[in-house]
Design goal:
Ribosomal Protein L25, Chain P, 6-stranded mixed β-sheet, alpha+beta, Barwin-like endoglucanases, 6-stranded mixed β-barrel, 2 domains, 30% helix, signal
């Protein structure tokens, strides 16, 4: 071992001496090789309608007799409209509904007959592949007044005459207004309206006492104003400013202010009321603004212009669900399980398998709807002639 150490030491000394007697060759540094940026894989656009998303036939699923009776009543209400209304989803034609609507009028009002009607009178299908997601809405009651006064300062606006559908210079079309040059521009945002963009134009329908309560009534789309004399004024959705809807619950979750699953309506309200500005900063981040009309009928009106049914009406995206179609839901939280009828729409209800269930008025409706946020499965019940036609067209296109 000693001789090995000596030999290695001698070799090392000789090497160092040699290095000291001649200069080392200059070695140019090798330039770094640039790593090419990865080319992102383009995400294919989502289908714009249910007909483009595709349907999958499914077997009827279980539902209660109580749900069947509510759905039958709601379906009958919708029938006069669906037989003549264009279906933007591309799944049905108005005439497709006539036979099943005629049959609905003849079904006895018993639970067994109602169940049999939905089990055997329709083709059950799934649209697209993604899971369903359901929320809830209800008809809240807040303090309000027909005239401004102490404690009633927040205007509730009617639809402005200058809110129109027009085509902007970039080619996109939608709600907007014409500026002084006649160009179509986006309509005023919530922030601009809060700051007085509509003041002095005589558009005030009523006045709310509490901005936070009014903000959440907007999200529901309709509600009741408890007036100072004890009477009730009902108001309902009439129009929207065309600006993007931003969910404040999602903002609070994304910022870590409220935990996942903890951003229900009551939690959001408590957080907003605890802020020095009363939550106004958060509300101003949602640029969408709803305009209202007074309702004098039996209840809130849905997108068909007909009364909606508590625990029977569901709001959907009409590009994916025909208005008037029965819908079966099976959610992780069981409150929404059963049959519903698509009788309404909503600014935040976009895409296939997105649903907003209506629970009526009162404390129980508020509790269920305010906490409803659940994933699960959804199926549509369509006229058999519609599904036969769609499947036949698919077979021809894909032999």
């Amino acid at each position: 071992m000693t001789s090995l150490k000596f030999g290695l030491g001698a070799l090392l000394a000789l090497s160092l001496a040699a290095c000291a007697t001649r200069p080392l060759p200059t070695v140019e540094p090798t330039p770094p090789v640039a790593t090419p940026e990865p080319v992102p894989t383009p995400t294919p656009p989502k289908p714009a309608t249910a007909a483009l998303s595709g349907i999958t036939p499914a077997a009827p699923r279980p539902f209660t007799a109580e749900a069947a009776l509510r759905a039958l009543a709601a379906f009958r209400i919708s029938c006069p409209s669906v037989v003549r209304r264009p279906d933007t989803s591309g799944l049905t034609q108005g005439e497709d509904w006539r036979a099943v609507c005629n049959q609905a009028r003849l079904v006895p009002d018993t639970s067994a007959d109602a169940k049999r009607f939905f089990e055997t009178g329709f083709s059950w299908v799934k649209v697209g592949a993604e899971p369903a997601f359901a929320t809830g809405y209800w008809e809240p009651e807040i303090l309000g007044s027909r005239v401004p006064g102490p404690g009633y300062a927040l205007p509730i606006y009617r639809t402005p005459a200058d809110l129109v559908r027009c085509t902007r210079t970039d080619g996109t079309a939608g709600r907007g207004r014409l500026d002084e040059t006649g160009q179509c521009v986006p309509y005023w945002t919530r922030v601009e309206i809060y700051d007085g963009a509509l003041a002095g134009r005589g558009l005030e329908l009523a006045y709310a006492a509490d901005p936070i309560d009014m903000f959440f009534l907007e999200i529901q789309g309709s509600g009741r104003l408890k007036l100072p004399d004890g009477s009730v004024m009902r108001i309902g959705y009439d129009n929207q400013n065309g600006r993007e809807y931003v969910g404040v619950g999602k903002l609070l979750r994304d910022r870590g202010i409220l935990p996942p699953g903890g951003a229900d309506m009551d939690s959001i309200k408590r957080w907003m009321r605890a802020q020095p500005d009363g939550g106004m900063g958060l509300m101003r981040e949602n640029l969408s603004k709803i305009f209202f009309k007074e309702l004098t009928g039996p209840g809130p009106l849905g997108a068909l212009g007909l009364p909606v049914t508590a625990r029977g009406t569901v709001a959907t995206d009409p590009m994916f669900v025909p208005l008037g179609a029965p819908v079966w839901l099976d959610m992780a939280t069981n409150d929404a399980d059963g049959l519903w009828v698509a009788q309404d729409t909503g600014g935040a209800i976009k895409g296939a398998n997105r649903f907003d269930t209506f629970w009526g008025a009162g404390e129980e409706a508020r509790r269920i709807a305010g906490g409803m946020s659940s994933k699960g499965e959804a199926l549509l019940l369509l006229p058999r002639v519609s599904v036969d036609r769609l499947l036949s067209q698919r077979a021809v296109a894909q032999p």
